[in-house]
């Protein structure tokens, strides 16, 4: 909260929100402040303080920063979209939902303009030589500033963002002639879409659109990209899009895959090759990512090479903390690059703690099946554990099953585990057979399990579950023939040979 000390003519802040990631109580309090009407809630903060503190007024040129009108309009629109994306991500990292972040941004046109002004001040030399900023440069310039505002203003941070440059508690409002925030958002998307579909007098689209079409993106997909990320419509063809595409082709990405990569992550074209993308790849290669596999890695998860160094380091440091070697970290990131997108504190650490609580070696599981760590504890992991507990398996047995088959938790209860369990009960095996061979749940019920078991029943031989399912079709038939031949060669007097004896003779 804030109080005004008239004797010292200064604002005294006593923020209750000091950590960057609020506790549930802090988030609730902050959301309450956002939702309250200013008729019920007033914080007396002198207007001149916020203006001086933020060094901004409606005319950015008066503050000594680069005048906004001197920047090309296309670049300005793109930068606004980038700044909004940075602010949205920042709010969501503080624990706010996507809806709350979007609502705040829709009310914060003045603050977005202020962020652009800050950007032009910080990178003034870049603009003087006509060099566009990359996405990471914009992020690295704005995030520390947002963090400092949050640290200083605490509970009234949202109010300051939404009412900038008017401090919370003042009666001033934006001029009524301004369009509403929601209309602004819509009009910006419409302008970006209009730029995409604009045609020359000869009926041709602009060169960047024609280039994207030549790569396999039809107009509808390009429009879909722009709806999700309007800044893409303003990316320069020769300075941004072409260099990235040519670099991907040099890495061995098939030309037919380029359209998919750009559709997944259009922000890739906003990354500087020399200052961001290539250094990021080198950094990951130092942790064992197979450089010969970059084409596949980027196709699977193009966002990997757009993350900040801080984000990458946080994830890699945590994997190292788990005791995973550099070599294995590289293998994990090569096979499952999505692991970098999982928040260490929100996703990875809680999931590791859950697995360790039921006796599963989390580092070993991470190496064998990293995608498991992207699952919800409540919606995916706990229900699977309960499923096996309810069927008589102990925690230790479940741990053994997972250690032998890491993908066990990735299966759907309804579509996989339950129907296969029900069918398993019709087979002659004891339940302990699934502890020995949990891979059973990874085979197709209709195409593999039922067919193979019907063949076993037809021949009347005895096979362990592993032999029934894990061999190739040709080898499976050979095993059946060999077992059947052994049975026919056994004298009648010795016909009571047990399944265990038959298995021992096979060895």
Structure, explained:
This protein has 507 residues and is mainly α. Among the domains are: 73-163; 186-264, no CATH class; 271-338, no CATH class. The chain has helices at residues 24-35, 47-54, 73-93, 98-106, 109-122, 124-128, 135-153, 157-163, 181-197, 207-214, 219-228, 237-250, 255-264, 273-285, 294-300, 309-321, 326-335, 344-357, 362-368, 377-390, 395-404, 413-424, 432-436, 445-459, 465-469, 473-489, 499-506; strands spanning 2-5, 10-13. The protein has a two-stranded antiparallel sheet. Strand 1 (2-5) and strand 2 form a beta hairpin. It is elongated. The model is unreliable at 1-69, 170-182 and 492-507 (pLDDT under 50).
User: Main β-sheet: number of strands, strand sense, barrel status?
Assistant: 2 strands, antiparallel
* H/E series: EEHHHHHHHHHHHHHHHHHHHHHHHHHHH
Helix count? Answer: 27
What would you call the shape? elongated
Strand order of the largest sheet: 1-2
Count the E strands: 2
Structural class: mainly alpha
Helix content: 55-70%
Overall average residue pLDDT: 79
Whole-number radius of gyration?
Answer: 30 Å
End-to-end CA span = 76 Å
Which percent range describes the beta-strand content?
Answer: under 5%
Identify low-pLDDT runs.
1-69, 170-182, 492-507
InterPro entries: MTERF, MTERF_sf
Keywords: Transcription, Transcription regulation, Transcription termination, Transit peptide
Pfam families: mTERF
GO molecular function: nucleic acid binding
């Amino acid at each position: 909260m804030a109080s005004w000390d008239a004797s010292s003519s200064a604002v005294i802040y006593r923020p209750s929100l000091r950590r960057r990631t609020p506790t549930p109580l802090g988030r609730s309090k902050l959301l309450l402040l956002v939702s309250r009407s200013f008729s019920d809630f007033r914080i007396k903060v002198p207007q001149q303080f916020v203006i001086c503190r933020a060094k901004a007024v409606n005319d950015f040129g008066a503050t000594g920063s680069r005048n906004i009108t001197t920047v090309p309009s296309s670049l300005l629109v793109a930068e606004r979209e980038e700044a909004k994306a940075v602010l949205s991500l920042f709010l969501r990292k503080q624990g706010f939902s996507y809806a709350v972040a979007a609502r705040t941004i829709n009310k914060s046109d003045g603050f977005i303009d202020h962020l652009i002004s800050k950007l032009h001040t910080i990178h003034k030399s870049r603009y003087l030589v006509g060099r566009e900023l990359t996405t990471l440069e914009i992020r690295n310039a704005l995030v520390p500033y947002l963090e400092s505002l949050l640290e200083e203003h605490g509970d009234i941070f949202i109010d300051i963002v939404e009412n900038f440059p008017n401090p919370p508690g003042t009666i001033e409002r934006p001029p009524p002639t301004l369009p509403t925030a929601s209309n602004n958002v819509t009009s910006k998307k419409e302008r970006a879409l209009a730029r995409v579909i604009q045609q020359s007098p000869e009926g041709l689209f602009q060169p960047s659109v024609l280039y994207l079409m030549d790569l396999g993106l039809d107009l509808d997909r390009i429009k879909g990209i722009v709806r999700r990320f309007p800044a893409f419509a303003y990316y320069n063809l020769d300075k941004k899009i072409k260099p990235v595409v040519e670099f991907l082709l040099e890495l061995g990405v098939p030309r037919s895959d380029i359209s998919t990569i750009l559709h997944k992550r259009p922000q890739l074209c906003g990354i500087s090759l020399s200052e961001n993308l290539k250094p990021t790849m080198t950094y990951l290669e130092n942790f064992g990512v197979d450089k010969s596999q970059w084409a596949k890695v980027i196709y699977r998860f193009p966002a990997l090479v757009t993350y900040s160094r801080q984000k990458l380091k946080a994830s890699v440091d945590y994997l190292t903390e788990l005791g995973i070697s550099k070599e294995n970290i590289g293998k994990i990131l090569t096979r499952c690059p999505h692991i970098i997108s999982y928040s260490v504190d929100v996703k990875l650490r809680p999931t590791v703690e859950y697995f360790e609580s039921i006796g599963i070696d989390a580092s070993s599981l991470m190496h064998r099946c990293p995608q498991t760590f992207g699952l919800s504890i409540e919606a995916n992991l706990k229900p699977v554990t309960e499923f096996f507990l309810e069927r008589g398996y102990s925690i230790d047995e479940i741990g053994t099953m997972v250690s032998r088959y890491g993908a066990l938790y990735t299966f759907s209860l309804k579509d996989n585990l339950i129907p296969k369990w029900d069918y398993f009960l019709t087979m002659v095996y004891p339940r302990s057979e699934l502890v020995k061979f949990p891979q059973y749940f990874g085979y197709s019920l209709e195409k593999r399990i039922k067919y193979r078991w019907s063949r076993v029943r037809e021949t009347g031989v005895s096979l362990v579950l592993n032999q029934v399912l894990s061999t190739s079709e040709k080898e499976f038939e050979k095993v059946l023939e060999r077992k059947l031949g052994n049975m026919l060669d056994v004298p009648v007097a010795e016909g009571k040979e047990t399944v265990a004896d038959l298995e021992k003779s096979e060895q």
